Amino acid sequence: xxxxxxxxxxxxxxxxxxxxxxxxxxxxxxxxxxxxxxxxxxxxxxxxxxxxxxxxxxxxxxxxxxxxxxxxxxxxxxxxxxxxxxxxxxxxxxxxxxxxxxxxxxxxxxxxxxxxxxxxxxxxxxxxxxxxxxxxxxxxxxxxxxxxxxxxxxxxxxxxxxxxxxxxxxxxxxxxxxxxxxxxxxxxxxxxxxxxxxxxxxxxxxxxxxxxxxxxxxxxxxxxxxxxxxxxxxxxxxxxxxxxxxxxxxxxxxxxxxxxxxxxxxxxxxxxxxxxxxxxxxxxxxxxxxxxxxxxxxxxxxxxxxxxxxxxxxxxxxxxxxxxxxxxxxxxxxxxxxxxxxxxxxxxxxxxxxxxxxxxxxxxxxxxxxxxxxxxxxxxxxxxxxxxxxxxxxxxxxxxxxxxxxxxxxxxxxxxxxxxxxxxxxxxx
Length: 429
Hints:
five-stranded mixed sheet, Nucleotidyltransferase, domain 5, 15 strands, 41% helix, WH-like_DNA-bd_sf, ATPase_NBD, Arc Repressor Mutant, subunit A, WH_DNA-bd_sf, elongated
């Protein structure tokens, strides 16, 4: 049948719909979408889920088995007390029909994970960059080592991989380009996609790390099912991944959620993240602290001891440890950082009105202690502030988001792809 879709330059456009090929493709996609969700299904159950006729469902399942996306399980016999009949055929989406790779390319390290088509992690590996400003070839080689080790950990060959998702600490536009307006961003413009495509032959999808963190949090974290969500990656620099009504916000050039101009905000002053601020403020406090004869000096001894061991510097981890052990200076530093983050979130919430803000990344596990003063500061600026929580996903949040990015591609284009199960040793759990 023909569907009139409008005119362009006075010429009527027509689209032919419901051809046998289109109908078959649509039915296969519908059944595959249901089967990906969970478990196994009989033909009757698939009929109920899709509304398709029995003959269509069985034919589609046979097509999907032939294509490699679905496998048939042993027939299910009728339950006792039910009228006898033929055992029901049982079908299951084959999560090992292929694999995806998720890669987090950070400043200090790169982490690769290998996952099946339900997102179960099968292998993981991390490699440290010797120098963030090292030549591109050297850093790409380090990434390649992480990917290869993750594949070996999963018991998989590179031919099993359908798509790779990659997260970087820079904006990414719709064409996969990286803006060259900041030197920090330019450090990630080293041809990551081209390297993986040439070495492995994979489709490679590049994404901003905070955006991927938001995808991961919406998928399986505290933000699961929350439509209006902001995820703050706040290790060394602050960056937000933003969702509105369940859709990721990119902006015109991929820079939505970048907050590099925070130096313009009173009481904030810079886009430095939690780890960077904690480290800087604690080191300053130790260097300028009062002598032992003054009140409060004893409380500074733990941080001072850490500083002596590290030749004057104090790590964020040491500050959190000291605060947990009652060091008053460390507690004061964390309070100052928490209130600063509360101001940042207040600014964001004023413009975007998220339901939930999640602190994610490597600092998330320690950041729970920041929540009371952060929430108090936030409430002083807003009558109905968003809920603020820390992510349970830890430093895996970006790699999980990269996996979700790759899975979305597979799910959207499954019938255009060729399953790669032969590249995976199925005996491995």
